[in-house]
């Protein structure tokens, strides 16, 4: 359900003076942006966003697709429907993939710089030398890999008997 909230935030360029200082989602977004500058571009892009295009490319579709799937997943949980576990597997895999793309957008440009002999350069974070990189970029985002992978396993375990029975037929 968080992706529905993310989508609302990301479809509107983040402007501190345009949001209430008492909105905890905006404040969390603002603080996170101090350590992952892709969320606080200054100046704004030519298309008027203060969020990096790679982040938008991952998060906006995730907000729409994952958000919609999360509604189906919630209905599946509440009503114990047949599609609960397949949707759980898809949503969880998408979350994991999105986070890997998100990390890759920061790591691979640095790697390519290193590969070309220019040294490893962090483009939007301070890299591993900063404690903020570890808690914000790695720690907070690792939740979007570890928890979904646990849900993937749970969905596969729940579907395993039916899938094995289908193989025998």
Automatic annotation (TrEMBL):
One of its GO terms (biological process) is sterol biosynthetic process. One of its GO terms (molecular function) is cholestenol delta-isomerase activity. InterPro entries: EBP, EXPERA. It is found in: Membrane. One of its GO terms (cellular component) is membrane. Keywords: Isomerase, Lipid biosynthesis, Lipid metabolism, Membrane, Steroid biosynthesis, Steroid metabolism, Sterol biosynthesis, Sterol metabolism, Transmembrane, Transmembrane helix. Residues 50-151 form the EXPERA domain. Pfam families: EBP. The keyword Zinc does not apply. The chain crosses the membrane at residues 54-74, 86-104, 131-151. The keyword Transmembrane helix applies. Its main location: membrane. It is a multi-pass membrane protein. Belongs to the EBP family. This is EXPERA domain-containing protein.
